[in-house]
Design a protein that fits this description.
Length: 124
């Protein structure tokens, strides 16, 4: 079997908040949307934002940030320091820029408004 990644779905508290974050921060295009679902075109794959079911939302404290083991990586076509500074100016939590020996990319992690981790990746 050969598989190809086509989409990643994040279960979120506030679909509209995250829709706006990803559209405004990364210029992603909305493919489809309704009150509990948004599908974004992220280039090589799609990102789905699906509202967490009501039976689970009642157990989540207001302002809770999720801690998960998923990271969305965005290749960017601009200077990573400029991109990082632009996101920081919008109050996005961003970590330091890093790289590794013999690795052709600069990397910088950040978190969306619900605590999901994303990474900016830029060629050196």
């Amino acid at each position: 079997m050969k598989a190809r990644l086509t989409a990643i779905i994040l279960y979120v508290q506030n679909v509209q908040l995250l829709r706006n974050f990803y559209v405004e921060s990364f210029n992603l295009k909305v493919i489809e949307q309704d009150p509990i679902w948004v599908l974004l075109d992220a280039g090589g794959a799609q990102i789905g934002l699906h509202k967490i079911g009501d039976q689970y939302l009642g157990n989540i404290e207001a302002g809770h940030l999720f801690d998960n083991n998923t990271k969305i990586v965005f290749d960017i076509d601009t200077d990573i320091e400029s991109a990082r500074n632009q996101l920081i100016s919008k109050n996005v939590q961003m970590r330091e820029i890093k790289t590794f020996d013999n690795y052709p990319f600069w990397l910088c992690d950040g978190t969306d408004p619900e605590g999901n981790v994303f990474q900016l990746r830029s060629k050196k």
